[in-house]
Design goal:
Low-confidence stretches: none
Order of helices and strands: HEEHEH
Shape: globular
Number of helices: 3
Strand order of the largest sheet: 1-2-3
Largest sheet: 3 strands, antiparallel
Mean pLDDT: 93
CATH class: Mainly Alpha
Radius of gyration: 12 Å
CATH topology: Arc Repressor Mutant, subunit A
CATH architecture: Orthogonal Bundle
CATH superfamily: Winged helix-like DNA-binding domain superfamily/Winged helix DNA-binding domain
Distance between the termini: 36 Å
Strand content: 5-15%
Helix content: 40-55%
Number of strands: 3
Length: about 80
Amino acid sequence: MRYDESRIDEAVLALLYLTSFEEHGVWRAWKGHDWEALGRLYTQELIDNPRNRNKSIIFTSEGFDRAKAACEKLFAVNGSE
């Protein structure tokens, strides 16, 4: 079966937002997701390079905003804030 990678990337971005945390003024998220999807998000400049020894990724400013929007779009209950 073929999958729409842009939709996968949006879902991974939303899931990264769910595990995000702020550390020293930088937004991070645990990187336990598909390496290919993380690589595509890096290529789109939404996260810093995930290929390192850290257990978390760092969002770019645009990446964090898009991750939050994707999370709200995909997972918010209608009428919730």
